[in-house]
Task: inverse folding
């Protein structure tokens, strides 16, 4: 019987690091987690409203949060340059104001930084968003998966696996379809694997997209 585990949590301390860096007492730990979730949701909602890229989707690879006693440092790793945020300081200040209102914390300062990812299609979150956009536009799921793998192969990845589950193409019975190219050694801890789970809502129902990318072997 196969035992399933999150590939990122499985490799913490070896090839993966936490996306949130902070310490808290046991009683206030749950509040810190909810605060992180509010920050990430607020940033994603703001980007969806204001960000327009040439490919038609928002390219957030990941959001890292570092907390101190008097400061919250947020680093947004973005795949595609955005004139609204990167070009003008007003965009970042407006985003900071929105997040500050959501947190309601006057004691701590908030600092948001934008970092551009060199190879956006090597990030599983951006690839999953690309596949989701294709599925919403009624593109065949096999065509969307193969195109995503082609884009990932251009970034010199060693292997990639893409899986889609749900009522694919509007069929009555839900099923799971997957495709793999190259090596994806999920049971090897020293293998650096990037992973994401993404949910897309279509007119037929909710589909789940999972992507594993084999980056490097240490």
Result:
């Amino acid at each position: 019987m196969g035992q399933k585990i999150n590939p990122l949590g499985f490799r913490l301390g070896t090839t993966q690091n936490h996306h949130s860096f902070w310490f808290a007492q046991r009683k206030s730990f749950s509040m810190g987690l909810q605060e992180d979730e509010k920050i990430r949701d607020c940033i994603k909602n703001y980007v969806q409203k204001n960000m327009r890229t040439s490919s038609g989707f928002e390219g957030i690879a990941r959001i890292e949060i570092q907390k101190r006693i008097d400061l919250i440092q947020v680093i947004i790793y973005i795949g595609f340059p955005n004139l609204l945020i990167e070009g003008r300081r007003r965009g970042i200040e407006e985003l900071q104001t929105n997040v500050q209102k959501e947190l309601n914390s006057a004691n701590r300062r908030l600092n948001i930084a934008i970092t551009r990812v060199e190879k956006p299609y090597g990030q599983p979150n951006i690839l999953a968003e690309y596949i989701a956009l294709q599925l919403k536009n009624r593109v065949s799921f096999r065509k969307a998966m193969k195109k995503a793998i082609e884009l990932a192969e251009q970034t010199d990845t060693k292997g990639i696996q893409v899986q889609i589950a749900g009522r694919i193409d509007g069929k009555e019975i839900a099923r799971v379809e997957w495709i793999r190219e190259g090596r994806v050694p999920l049971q090897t801890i020293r293998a650096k694997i990037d992973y994401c789970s993404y949910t897309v809502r279509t007119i037929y129902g909710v589909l789940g997209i999972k992507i594993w990318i084999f980056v490097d072997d240490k």
The CA atoms of residues 39 and 99 lie 6 Å apart. The helical segments are 7-10, 29-50, 83-87, 89-103, 124-136, 141-153. The chain has a mean pLDDT of 87.
